[in-house]
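If you are new to this repository, start here. Below is one unmodified record pulled from the training split, so you can see the exact layout before writing a loader.
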Amino acid sequence: MKRWIYPLLCLSAIALVITTPLPPRLHCSLTAIAQQIRSFGQHGRSGRAGESGTPGNNGPAQTVWADGTSRQIYLRGGEGRDGGNGEPGDRASCNNQPRNVRHDLQAPDGGNGGNGGDGGAGGNGGALTLYYRNIADLRQIYVDAGGGRNGRGGQGGEGAPGCRCRYTDWTVETCTGTPGTAGYSCQTERFICRDGDFGSRGRAGRDGQPGQPGQLWLVNQDQPLLPDNPSQSLSLAALGSTPVAVSKNLWQQRGGALGLLAPGSVIANEYQEYVGRVEGQGQIVWDAPRSATAFATDTATMTIQDSGAIAFQFSPDLWLAGEIQVADALTTYRVTQAVRASEATQLSWGTLNGQGLQLTIAVLDLAAVSDYVDTQFQIRLRTADGDPNRDRRVRYITRYEGPVAENLVSRNHNRFEVALGRIPGVSGSDIRRGNYAEIELTMVRSLGGNSTSHTLSWRGEL
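And here is the target side for that same chain:
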């Protein structure tokens, strides 16, 4: 077997060593493999990647009154810059190749070329708002709101050549014994040197995205639009102290902008046309048993819809129940209950009382909000007639899994009691004193449109 083939067989043998015993001739360690091929010199470093091109600026927005006068308006987006080219890889450092060594050699590889930088995106064309009275006057308006040219990706850098072996193969003679005696023998071994690889060329950068053309907004009136304020995010205290105004300008998308403007105009063909305005006021009225002071700094968002209706949205941690009332332009949200989501899950085990059919287990509401939220119970009850921790033959058996009927749950202020002994399908012998049980109780807590669940687990001797 040639010397240079041996490492390949060792690598194959390692992949099989977990499941297949190796023949003695192929048994080798990672250390032995490393000793078969040794490198010299130094690999070339990879070239640096080219810089990404900067994106082009968006075109400016402009508002114009069309009165029949010919006008030319330029709102083009800026051009994206090209990405930089990747630098070439460095040549390998080819130190002197060792001579007559008793192992194979690997010459160093050349450095890889750097990747090209991505091109910058072109800037979008600017938006144009046109006020008009006579639609024919729009034909006097020439607009160039085209998107900017995208930058091109940079070229990948060239890879550098690896070192070439000066001596590609050689032999070394090894003798054992004493010359002139019967036990004296010599063996010649052949070794090789493998040339370094040429570094790979860097990846070319991606071209940027072309800019999009600007959009036209048409307003058929000669008075400027009032500013809109469709949404307000304020504290509950601020929304409760005085009505807050919201407003929204309404637009409808239409097609055919290029047919309305001067020939040769460059702009998106879909345009927005002003169709009206909605206004309103909103306020929160606190009518909950809990004090509004505890929730005064919480934030609510009030938004006016296209229909003119006002909607209220609260943070996920704030559970409110109430009703919307509308009178003229004022919409009020009357809060009737208030709880924090974090309070709804502050539940803990109480005591386990009774035995057999009289067995009950208690759950405590540590946040004391059970007067304000709905609570539904689900249970999984498993029992064993011995201690499974000491006797492996003893197994837990599921006696019941599902919802707990309302008549099996009683509440005294913030203390719940679940009648385990009266759950359907559970016999007195299943839950007699001395048996072991696993109880998993899930409470589903809800208020208004909010809901969450909390699970408690218990295991022990009844």
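Two things worth knowing about this chain: Residues 362 and 417 are 4 Å apart (CA to CA). Confidence is low (pLDDT under 50) at residues 1-34.
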